[in-house]
Amino acid sequence: MDSNNGLQTLKGGEFLLDGYITLGEQKEITFGGSKYTLQCFEGDHEDEYLLKKDQKVCLFQNGVLKMIYEEEADGAQIGEFTRFENGCVSFVQSFDDILDNRNFNRIVNHVNGKRMEIYSHDSDKLMYHGEFNERREREGWGIQYDETSGRMLLEGIWKGNKLVEIIRKIEGTIMIEFKRNGNNTTASNRVPFYVGEFIYDESKESFIRNGRGYWIDEETRIATREVEWKDGVEVSGRDLYDGWYTRSTTPKPKPKPKPKPKPAPMPVPAPAPAPAPKREEPAPKREEPAPKREEPAPLRFSVTGSTKWTDVSLQVTDLTISSNCCNDLNALDLNRFEWLRSIEIGNECFGSVQTFKIDGLNRLKSIKIGNNSFTQRKNDEEENENENGDSESKSFHILNCGSLKSIQIGEYSFSDFAGDFELSNLPQLQSIQIGTIGNDSSNFLYSSFEIRDLPNLQSITLGDFAFAGSLSTIIENLPSLQSIRLGWCVLHGINVDSCSLTLRNLPNLTSITSVKWSFQYPRVVTLENIPNLQNVKLPYSFQKVRSKSISNVSSILADLVEIDE
To answer: Same domain for 127 and 49?
Structure first.
């Protein structure tokens, strides 16, 4: 307090109440049936007061608890003190850090749990924020800062106060993310997979891609794609070719000039020349085939609520996301897991993700997503559909997956996705099942349904109200398609003049059925080359047709389409 003038030079002296000027003598008061000693202050601290009982001391400001500590009989603070902000614990620190002029070691109250923070005594800058052990050593996840400037340096893993793995390095506004492969504190052991701009969310302890970035190939260490991010969401991007923007930019090496042949020496005459020995041609060199990349051993990984995506190995082959996971993420990028064979996502996951995009996973065979995932609109009543299901900024893309055979999506997942729905270059895809017939599913409620050029697709199943508001429905160029099964109000359409339906080049389609009200609103209907239909059940369809074009279509379908007079 005011008598401790010698403490004014100590950093952190305010926690020793340096500069507090007492107002009058201490008083004995009774509060809650217990006796306390009350000490008030004046000047800059006139809104504060102390209550003491035995060795325990509580400092209040405007009646709100500000600090708790213990003191000896002579008034000297001992042990640790707990600092509060707005009634919440801010941190715990030892008085000895202040008295001995040491770095400040604090246990802070973070929304993700207790964290240790270390501040430099010389610069007052944060040096470390992260997990710790019972000896208050750096242990587990943490972030290291520059002692002089306070600049963030790296995110890593510590063991016994020693850095053992670097997750990412920070260089100004750029972060370099590394593959989790154990001890990579030596530069030559680091395997980078992404370099780019970022923002740091302190409350979530999360690094969010924001601005320009580059995917780095694990083997060549060259950028394969340039991407623009906004708050963790990819907004644009383009592929790179050996680091070049275009394939033709790479300069071709000039061929070396062939050496000119030397003139043959003149033969020396001899009386009886010996026959010249035969010149043996060297055996042609055998060209070795380029080494193939080894397939990793099957590696299954399950993501739970406590999993960090940096923990997922890039060599994972079968990825499972538990239910009720990852709803705080606004972006999902699975394309860097090039060895994936299967993706299974549970119920109620990724509720904040705006774009679903799988591109170029050529080993992927199956995608399965549960109920109520990738949506803010879960199990709504029918009367609320119009007000909750129209988000054109949300889009769905599965592209360039050469081995993908099946796509299965549960009820209400993607229900508020109203942007693009795109399936392209999936040569092995055999089945699409979205929602459940007989249950309100409402997947992609206001997206247009356009499926084309999938050579092995055999079946399409859409649950009740899936794509109900499809403005443009196109199902064409599917030579292997055999059945289309639709629930209630699937591909119902919108009651506007631009609503259209095209079914074209489906030579092996034998069955198309709906519970009721599918294809009700299309004004323009085009049906071409569907010659082998045997089972057609489309009650209450084609009620608003203004024009039609029908060619080489089984009569059991063609006869249902009549112009609405």
So the answer is: no
pLDDT of residue 487: 96
The answer to whether residue 254 sits within a structural domain is: no
The pLDDT of residue 284 is 56
- Phi, psi dihedrals of residue 222, rounded to the nearest 5°: -110, 145
Residues 319, 309: Cα–Cα separation, whole Å: 12
Closest CA relative to residue 324, chosen from 358, 373, 387, 275: 373
pLDDT tens for residues 334-376? 998 999 999 999 999 999 999 999 999 999 999 999 999 999 8
Residue 106 lies in a domain: no
Is 249 within a domain?
no
Task: List, as one string, the DSSP characters of 267-336.
Answer: PPP-SSPPPPPPPPPPPPPPPPPPPPPPPPPP-EEEE-TT--GGGS-TT-SEEEE-SS--TT-S----TT
Question: 501: closest CA among 525, 477, 469?
Answer: 525
Residue 223 shares a structural domain with residue 321: no
What values do phi and psi take at 175, rounded to 5? -115, 145
- Cα–Cα dist 65/421, whole Å: 55
Pair 324, 450 in one domain: yes
Give dist(CA 476, CA 449) in Å, integer.
11
Where is average pLDDT lowest: 26-40, 192-206, 466-480? 26-40
Residues 418 and 555 in one domain: yes
State whether residue 358 is helix, strand or coil: strand
- pTM for this entry: 0.52
| Domain final position from 187, 208, 239 | 239
- Which residues share a beta bridge with 80? 94
pLDDT in tens, 498-509: 999 999 999 999
Average pLDDT (265-269) is 50
